[in-house]
Amino acid sequence: MSAxxxxxxxxxxxxxxxxxxxxxxxxxxxxxxxxxxxxxxxxAIRYEKLFAELGRFREVVEGFIAEGGRGLxxxxxxxxxxxxxxxxxxxxxxAAEAVNxxxxxxxxxxxxxxxxxxxxxxxxxxxxxxxxxxxVLVLGAGGAVRGVLEPLLEEKPASLTIANRTLIKAxxxxxxxxxxxxxQATGYGELAGRAFxxxxxxxxxxxxxxxxxxxxxxxxxxxxxxxxxxxxxxTPFLRRAQSENAGMLADGLGMLxxxxxxxxxxxxxxxxDTRKVTHMLRELLA
Length: 286
Ligand code: NAP
Description:
This protein has helices at 30-41, 57-66, 79-85, 91-96, 115-126, 143-154, 167-176, 236-243, 253-268, 274-285; strands at 3-6, 12-22, 45-51, 71-74, 88-89, 101-105, 108-112, 135-139, 159-163, 184-186, 198-201, 224-227, 248-251.
């Protein structure tokens, strides 16, 4: 149920409820991000963390809806289940077959995926790096890549290459996304001697303080190196890019905030200022 709150003059405010659902979920920064968005835009919302046991996702979501919950962000490992639970999905969620934003309205469940637009906004708007006409390389072929390919293709890069350790997974993505645009699949070995304008690390290697098996010489002074993982210092991928004098380095903190801002916009119709919140989170990481 929406929570009731009173102002000092005893005026009743109904506070709409939102949450991030995942397993695990304790580490999520989403409550802090959405609290800041709500404060900055004057929206009366409550945003919490919702843990779901594996196999109990639908039950937990239905319980949240029954209590009057208005929307959920969905994190690992439930984005596929959220997609299947949605009555209607956006084109970008349909392409990804994954949903990270659920909205409950008029007895229906609406699914969207804001991960890709979060990445694109961080690169194109926050960093002012155009993707149109560029040669883009994405490392990895897991859930994160599935979530970002359609919005990346929407930007009309000159080429979009997916490199993955397990080549067949990259090939499957190329095939799946063919209705939305052309991508190429490759193994890491074939990257030697090639040049890209934007190189996005969407593998989970940084979480284990490892480098994806990229050949030396992949970066140059014009390239943007972007790691979807964010951390206090540079990740091994960003350290390699720095040592090869990549023109720009970025981690995934901006993407995290931008995807949250798009969810907030879907729910509340307001676009919060993302720079301040990214800056605040960066200070907390330091
Ligand atoms: P996933 O589905 O588990 O996929 C992991 C990917 O990493 C696969 O392509 C895998 O290759 C590759 N990989 C793992 N270890 C490797 C190694 N030692 N060498 C080469 N490749 C390796 O994970 P995901 O959901 O796609 O997430 C990937 C990363 O993106 C995570 O670290 C996550 O934190 C980050 N992410 C960030 C945001 C954000 O908002 N900033 C949003 C979403 C995800 P194989 O297929 O060969 O196993």
